[in-house]
Amino acid sequence: MAKIIAVCRSDNKGVPKQDIGEGLFREEYGLENDAHADCCSHRQVSLLAMESIEKMRKLGLDVKPGDFAENLTTEGIALVSLPVGTRVAVGAEVVLEISQIGKECHTGCAIMRQVGKCIMPKEGV
Question: Residues 10-44: pLDDT tens digits?
Fold first, then answer.
């Protein structure tokens, strides 16, 4: 069964997000009080599977949910296999639509510098 492991936000772009436990998602905006929330963006919420984070841990990185700047860390759902346009229910009231597979790392991505690769460009949604 698929589940949400963490809900993460940050005040600024380009930094890891902190797990806040729960949050308010606003339609056509994103996670309230998150730096990436924006009414005019095609991508207001980002997701990453815990299974992807585990891959980076196996490379020796000490990483946790939010370190890749994702808003939702999931478990038990193959996010990268979902076609663009797929709608994903999150709880009883939130429905997200997959608008893009992969999320470009920002310039100076610490994980990219540390190990030479990052999972967000291929596995972030």
Answer: 998 878 899 999 999 999 899 999 998 887 777 78
Predicted structure pTM score = 0.90
Asked if pLDDT for residue 51 goes beyond 90, the answer is yes
**Which residues, 6+ apart, have CB-to-CB distance to 81 below 8 Å?**
none
Helix (H, G, I), strand (E, B) or coil at 4: strand
- The CATH number fitting domain 3-123, selected from 2.40.33.20, 3.40.50.12280, 2.160.10.10, 3.30.450.20: 2.40.33.20
Distance in angstroms (rounded) separating the CA atoms of residues 35 and 13: 6
Q: What is the mean pLDDT of the chain?
A: 88
